[in-house]
Amino acid sequence: MLQAASDPLMKVENLVVEYSVGGKTIHAVSDVSLEIARGETLGLVGESGCGKSTLGRAVLQLRQAVSGKVLFDGHDLTTLKGEPLRKMRRRVQLIFQDPIASLNPRRRIGDIVAEPLVIAGVRDPEERARRVSDVLSAVGLDPALVSGRLPHEFSGGQCQRICIARSLVLNPEFVICDEPVSALDVSIRAQILNLLEEMKARYGLTLLFIAHDLAVVKAVSDRVAVMYLGRLCEVGPSEQLFARPAHPYTALLIEAIPVPDPDVRPTQSVPVGEPPSPIAPPSGCRFRTRCPRADARCAGEVPELRVVAPGQFAACHHPLI
Amino acid sequence: MATLELSLEEEAGATPVRRRRLGMLFWFAIGWMVLVFAVAIFADLLPLPSPTDMDMLERRAPISAEHWLGTDGLGRDELSRLIYGARISLIVGLCAPMIGVTIGGALGMLAGYFRGRFESFVVGSMDVLLAFPPLILALAVTAYLGQSIFNLTYILGVLGIPAFMRVSRAATLTLARREFVIAAQALGATHARILLRELLPNVLLPLLAFFLLGVAVTIVVEGSLSFLGLGVPPPISSWGSMIGEGRESLDVAPMLAFIPAIAMFLTVLAFNLIGDTMRALTDPRQGAL
Amino acid sequence: MSGALLSVEDAVVDLPTPRGNLRAVDHVDLAVGAGKTLGIVGESGCGKTMLSRAVLQLLPKKAKLSGRVMFNGQDLTTLSAEKLRKLRGRSLAVVFQDPMTSLNPVLTIGTQLIETIQEHLELDLAQARQRSIELLAAVGIPAPEQRLAQYPHQLSGGMRQRVAIAIALSCEPQLLIADEPTTALDVTIQAQILDLLAREQQRRHMAMIIITHDLGVVAGRTDEVAVMYAGRVVERAPTPALFKQMRMPYTEALLAALPKLDVAPHTPLPAISGRPPDPTRPMKGCSFSPRCRYSAGRCTTEKPRLSPAETQEHLYACFHPIAAGVGA
Is B6 in Cβ contact with C18 (below 8 Å)? Predict the structure, then answer.
């Protein structure tokens, strides 16, 4: 796909992920292609159940893809198994939504952060201790105070710092952040977002930033991809996409954000209706059941991602621009 | 830098101390356990008459300076038999669940972690084992292999496997979906490492609590089997066989059945109490609000 | 405030915990007039939920409440359990954050609605059923008759929250407390649910308290906002006045820390450093002082009282308020 970058670090090609729950097939990710350039942050937004987290996990091979490729630095991860896959995983890390649940409650912080090093085969305990202490200081925690404690002694924001430290201790190139701040309070959220930006600069990271909050995504992303019911609706540079959305769904998402300003009366135009089930997605364009512009063509024909503006792509038969 | 001002120093001196009142009952339970274990372990060193020496002149003797708890129907010292009986009850009561917790725990973890066909196989075979009437199995095995402490322990241990398997599988199933396990997978950890370092420490506690319950149940089951004459072979005493023997003279010397029954009751109660308290104490989230 | 439907006067809620006494609500005064909407904004652990529980008299058993909760001229803290039960559901209704846990999973939606209606209103089964259908239609649930026979798990999150709202509205309450009603929902659904609440509030002329952590949620939809921090109300003002001129540094910092759509990507956010204080360890001074950039002098030794600014309605608790015409 002709999306971005001359030098993509991560390339997802026609990825399809389906799994069954209670005998029914859930079409979590349907034919998604993405490119993420080295050093770029790609934001991935969508509502719950749109498949954005599944996509993140499928990239890491934590979910089996039905078809499609995940090319990381030229290697197709979907064909790797065993030791080569484990080696590749060390270069790709994941940060989760619930920082407390993603730390083993019975292990000490020092051990948790050192674990990636142990798995990667760093045998020298002194070197491990040095790297753990470096990365803990980098995320704003005092290694001497923190190392000996258990996760439950920390608040959500501190646990997320620990998770970030764990994901960075191996000097990865690519980090997938899956809703890293949605479980945190507003005042802590800004700290963690700033920290992620700092860490990105310091460690030269490429980020896939998954979130449901558009404002959060915009704050950190160079480009944004919008997902709805397993399909990509729109991809484009952040500023451009938020200023001039081409897909009606992107426009709806932007409109629905509550603005902290009483002079901006909440719009009443948000259509009633809920996302259909990913078990039986609508034919054609999956957004058509909630779309004010839908017509017969939308029901019959799946819209392809097309260029609507420089660098901006939308999958819509009747784009807004 | 703006984001690096996380103040931890104020909490530095305040490592959460878990001040939980354990209560009198817990300390009584501990006291009783220490006493039972001590006398059982050091039975040979205690100035006790032999538990198998019969004295036909002093059958069903009352409490006296010579026989602190009197003698039984064959004139054997009741206290001595009670203490040596504690040995058997504790050996069987501890070893049998050990078999269950090791095999059942491991099977449960593997089943809960790997899922799929292996899980169906394990769960299915455990259901078969559960469906087999335990007394018949015990009867069959003792009839075939002979009555001995070893065989008794072995049967009771095997019978306990399904229950331990279920506890450990249930715990593993919920834990395996937790994000820290996925995080370990994402780090490229091997299955063995995830099972041993991430899952085992978390599964161990529910298993331990269930183990203590298992000890209590096994002591009762051993008692029942011995009461029915399927337990340890005479003249070795166990609490169950003592109750069984005491039954014959309930009308003349009810003490002979009641003393071992009380000993068993207190021990089982103590195991249960300690198990409950341990579980409450070691939950890492108890201290955090 | 005279003529208020609900007024909370000097409420203090203490919770005993293994780590010591936790003061969840610390001398709070609030009032809501009939037909008005009050927004309570604060981060998790600031005591906003405990405050709403205190109003409903649904505090945990071990909690101690002092102060008065006046509703319609009655002090709820002195009412008998039976009278309270009649009041709750009838005149005082709640919508909780998670409709999955607030609805009973083993009863159909119809049963839950009809039971609530029959409990409080004298209607026969057919009338109650009719009313249930009307309510479901009013909260925007398509095909309400068929929905009566469904179970909560057969509905989506947004639909479940609509059902929870229908149950809350079923007996025409005078006051509706919505405790983080949209936090568990998606953005597009959140907008719908907030619109629904606002519409029903207007139509029924009931008073409403919206509890949320999101300043964006209260901005366009409330008459008055109270900002809570560490168990206390630190700023209280009519909504337009508050957003026009925030006086308490915490409120301002909270708004500034929100990522905004009209800011370019990669702009560092003005984060609030540190984290909220441990509520089991009371502080001598202003509880926001360790994180406040204006903190100086008596901020660390003396607690500021909630006092009026230019107008009697705009109250704040701060020794160094942001001067008028500066800041946000």
Answer: no
Q: Nearest Cβ partner of A274 from C156, C187, C264?
A: C156
A-B interface: how many C-beta pairs under 8 angstroms?
A: 98
Q: Which of C187, C217, C243 sits opposite A261 (nearest CB)?
A: C243
pLDDT digits (tens, 9 = 90+) for A167-202: 999 999 999 999 999 888 888 889 999 999 999 999
CB B99 within 8 A of CB B158: yes
For every residue of B169-183, DSSP letters joined together read HHHHHHHHTSHHHHH
Instruction: Report d(CA A235, CA A221) in Å as an integer.
Output: 12
Task: Quickly state the pLDDT bin for B16 (edges 50, 70, 90).
Answer: very low
B193 near A CB under 8 A: yes
* Residue A117 pLDDT grade (very low, low, confident, very high; cuts 50, 70, 90): very high
- The complex's ipTM works out to 0.83
Helix (H) / strand (E) element for A27: namely: strand A24-37
Structure tokens, B264: 């068993």
Exposure letters A254-289 (e unless 16+ CB within 10 A, then b) = bebbbbbbbeeebeeebeeebbbebeebbebbbbbb
Q: Please state the pTM of the whole predicted model.
A: 0.82
**A201: contact with B, CB 8 A cutoff:** no
Measured between alpha carbons, how far is A233 from A250 in angstroms, rounded to an integer?
A: 8
Question: Measuring CA to CA, which residue among B50, B36, B68, B91 is closest to residue B262?
Answer: B36
- Per the DSSP assignment, residues forming a β-bridge with C316 are C235, C307
Facing residue for C271 by CB, picked from B3, B7, B19: B3
C274 touches B: beta carbon within 8 Å: yes
